[in-house]
Amino acid sequence: MKDVQRTCCACKQKKTRSQLIRVTLDNNGLLNVNEGKQKLFGRSAYVCKNLDCITLAQKKRSFNRAFKREIPQIIYDELTKYI
């Protein structure tokens, strides 16, 4: 089975889902960081598994635009744990 490609919200490169970290906004308005181990439903955005892309996403406010809301610093801290 072919792995579906997604786009990093920071660098805009297309990569397989296994190469990206997924951030999900659920129906209750909660943000979750998911490396793909579990299936979470809701609107999602992806970022590469490297510090440069996470920093760039924060600087460009990529997640803020994707989710149409302010993203707290704790989400970026959580993303760095996956590196």
Description:
With 83 residues, the chain is an alpha+beta fold. The chain has a single domain (5-81), classed as 2-Layer Sandwich (Hypothetical Cytosolic Protein, Chain: A), CATH 3.30.1230.10. The chain has 3 helices and 5 strands, in the order βββββααα. The chain has helices at residues 51-60, 62-67, 73-81, and strands at 5-7, 14-16, 20-25, 31-34, 43-48. The strands form 2 sheets. A 3-stranded antiparallel sheet has the order 4-3-5. It has a two-stranded antiparallel sheet with strand order 1-2. Strand 3 (20-25) and strand 4 (31-34) form a beta hairpin. The model has no long low-confidence stretch (mean pLDDT 90).
The CATH topology comes to: Hypothetical Cytosolic Protein, Chain: A
Counted beta strands: 5
Binned strand content: 25-35%
Low-confidence stretches: none
End-to-end distance, in Å? 26 Å
Summed up, the helix count is 3
User: Which structural class matches the secondary elements?
Assistant: alpha+beta
Q: Strand order across the biggest sheet?
A: 4-3-5
Rg computed from alpha carbons, rounded to a whole number of angstroms: 12 Å
Q: N-to-C SSE series?
A: EEEEEHHH
Name the assembly state: single chain
Instruction: Tell me what the CATH architecture is.
Output: 2-Layer Sandwich
The rough form would be described as globular
How helical, in percent, are the residues?
A: 25-40%
Mean pLDDT: 90
**According to CATH, what is the class?**
Alpha Beta
Main sheet specs: 3 strands, antiparallel
How many structural domains are formed by the residues?
Answer: 1
CATH homologous superfamily assignment: YlxR-like
